[in-house]
Amino acid sequence: MVAAQKAGELDAALPSEVILFSCYARTCAPAVEYLQKSSKMNNEDSVTHMLQVAFHGFRP
Question: What is the model's pTM?
């Protein structure tokens, strides 16, 4: 994370612990499982879209 922050890939203003625990929390969230069970998306698309939301938000 620190290297990604230095490279400008992650927000350097955020403490690395915030990034770490945010990523950890996302892995515990059931959203991907819910999408895989209840939507018409395939598993790869479900994961891709959740990664998009996690790292880029909802804005285009």
Answer: 0.64
Closest CA relative to residue 43, chosen from 34, 53, 55, 54: 34
- 16-60 pLDDT, tens per residue? 999 999 888 887 889 888 888 999 999 899 889 988 988 888 887
- Find, among 57, 60, 32, 27, the residue nearest to 47 by Cα: 32
Q: What share of the chain is helix, strand, coil (3-state, %, to 5)?
A: 65, 0, 35
Residue type at position 2: V
The answer to whether 29 touches 50, Cβ cutoff 8 Å, is: no
